[in-house]
Amino acid sequence: MKTKIIYFITLCMLSLTVQAQIDRSKMPEAGPDPVIKLGKPKTFTLKNGLKVIMVENNKLPRASASLTIDNKPYLEGEIAGVSSMMGSLLGRGTSNITKDEFNEKVDFLGANVSFFSSGAFASSLKKYFPEILELMADGVKNSQFTKEEFDKEVQVTLDGLKSSEKSVTAAARRVENVLTYGRNHPLGEFTSKESVKKITLKDIKNNYNTYYRPNNAYLVIEGDIDTKKIKKLVKSLFADWEKGTIPAYTMPVTKNVATTEINFVNMDNAVQSEIAIINNVDLTLGDKDYYAALIANNILGGGGTARLFMNLREDKGYTYGSYSSLRQSRYAGTFRATASVRNMVTDSSVVELQKEINRIRYQKVTAEELENSKEEYIGGFVMDVQKPRTVANFALNIARYNLPKDFYANYIKNIKAVTLDDVQNAAIKYFRGDKARIVVTGKGIEVLKNLEKTDYIINYFDKEGNPTEKPAMTMPIPEGMTAETVVNKYFEAIGGKDKVMAVKTKMTLANATIQGTPIVMTTKAAEPNKTSLVISVMGNTMQKMVFNGENGYQEARGQKIDMQPAQIAEAKASNTLFSDLHYNAGELLRIEPIEGENAIVLKYNDTEIFYDMASGLKIKEVKITKTPDGKEGKTPTNFSDYKEVSGILFPHTISTKMGPIDLNLTVKEIKVNEGVSDADFE
């Protein structure tokens, strides 16, 4: 026992001695750079041209196979979309197995097999991998394209196009590609309803037989494999995959504009603007300034601490995020700086995006920014090389781009060698703020007036990238139309003013979902201005707001806050049953197109109200607010799906915003002159 005590005291003394020798006022010296040992993949090539790369990793009893058909992009023309449809139809039954049998077998083995126009992928546990690879090979070589499956895919594709017709983001990306690459460029063409309807089953089969060949293909197999057995298996499964002659294609050369310009796409339903500043670049993996270009882009817009994000979101509050990307390519690379912003700050956002692009071009980044970006890349790289899939992808890149064998082994060294001058030179070369297309997709009537104040020429395009005229900003209000006639038409449309005036109380029950949580909103109102709103989750009251005609309060999480004098005054002046009764004292502003239909816009106090000119129904309200720093904000509320209750039409679908959250309410029940008592407003 005595010996143990002496040993313990000695150990403590040694520990104290070591700690006393450490000078904690000095930052520890950085250790040596990690040595990257990727291992050497084993490769071989079949007679049909298929190049096989095998990466062995025995950490987990799993294996995967990734097929990449590395064809040069080609123009599909009037049948644009044919290769995508062909890829979707791959594997839906082969000459050896039906579609259902194929899917059941994959599910039974707990595996994954998928096909696409430029390849295929399969993964499973080690013991099932030979069987799964055989299924993948069968789908690659022997897919049967039936009329039944083709017709289904045509309809699915058309439905997808229809659902995205009003998508501002989809239109923005489509036009951006058309303008950046050109309509007659493989990367600039797009699938349309017209092109899909021209595609035949024969076109699908012809595309498969022409382009889905092993000539330019790579098969990467990684995981817990025996390379000798896998080589033998691959030969038995893929050696009979017939090679073909891939048609030669000369790709058009992409060009930047001579001087930066704005390309505007008008979308009447846009509630925010999609901005993309784009220029073409000639940058390929492995170029001399590749690493400097990576660092420059990372500092400019690579994430939440980059300059674009910090400016447009953290400083200005224009957007939830702004980023840039530098796309290297053997065929047509691009630089893009993007942001989705509120309509009212579209012009300011363009200015700030351009300011940051030009700042990194004409002023060197700081030594701290450079060092932080290097550490970020090195840290991510070190983490990635631990993954077998990353090692396999590295091997594939070396083969596809004809890179030096030690390209990734020298990655850290090359990143660390980038200087401040290198970053600026790369920014000047690749971020062409002086020869860029500023593609803005948004609501012209709200954003063009301010965009026209910038120094850029504005060209106009429709949502398919065709040149068009400047959209009409306003339409004249018809002679004799007043706020009173508009509001009266609304009351006639919903059932008549006499029925509206007979309503003394109203109860509305609506369902919604906030961040995945279902909620129930119960609203009760009584003339002239009493109101109660209760928000419940799973039967529990989470929030309550009440006004009894004289005073009111808000209550949430056990905390009760009384209404302030200004809030009380506003509540007293309102009509909680039908706010439109006050709007005949408003001012007619304009006629505005909304989703192809004209709406008359009336303003009352701080609210704009939109009435459909044809039906007379109210379709939207926009409340205008100001933040303490003087910035203006708009909160839209949309009304649709009008249904009759007690002889009056009420909207049963209501969408609005609660800060950054989109709130979509579905009305389940409305009661008129019942279900409300004075106790509801206590």
Radius of gyration, CA atoms, in whole angstroms? 32 Å
Envelope shape: globular
Q: Ranges with pLDDT <50 over ≥5 residues?
A: 1-20
Strand content: 25-35%
SS elements, strand count? 25
**Strand order in space, largest sheet:** 18-17-16-15-14-13-25-24-23-22-21-20-19
- Count of alpha and pi helical runs: 20
- Give the mean pLDDT: 91
**Straight-line distance between termini:** 76 Å
Q: Into which percent range does the helicity of residues fall?
A: 25-40%
Largest sheet: number of strands, sense, barrel closure: 13 strands, antiparallel
**Which secondary-structure class do the elements indicate?**
alpha+beta
List keywords for this structure.
682 residues, alpha+beta, 13-stranded antiparallel beta sheet, 6-stranded mixed beta sheet
Fold topology:
Elements: H1 2-20, E1 42-45, E2 51-56, E3 62-69, H2 82-89, H3 99-108, E4 112-116, E5 119-125, H4 129-142, H5 147-163, H6 168-181, H7 193-198, H8 201-211, E6 217-223, H9 227-238, E7 261-266, E8 272-281, H10 290-301, H11 307-315, E9 319-327, E10 333-342, H12 346-362, H13 367-384, H14 388-400, H15 411-416, H16 420-430, E11 437-442, H17 444-451, E12 457-461, H18 483-494, H19 497-501, E13 505-514, E14 517-526, E15 530-537, E16 540-547, E17 552-556, E18 559-562, H20 565-573, E19 587-594, E20 597-604, E21 607-612, E22 618-626, E23 632-645, E24 648-658, E25 661-672
Parallel strand pairs: 2-6, 7-11, 7-12
Antiparallel strand pairs: 1-2, 3-5, 3-6, 4-5, 8-10, 8-11, 9-10, 13-14, 13-25, 14-15, 15-16, 16-17, 17-18, 19-20, 20-21, 21-22, 22-23, 23-24, 24-25
Helix pairs in contact: 2-8, 4-9, 10-13, 10-16, 11-12, 12-16
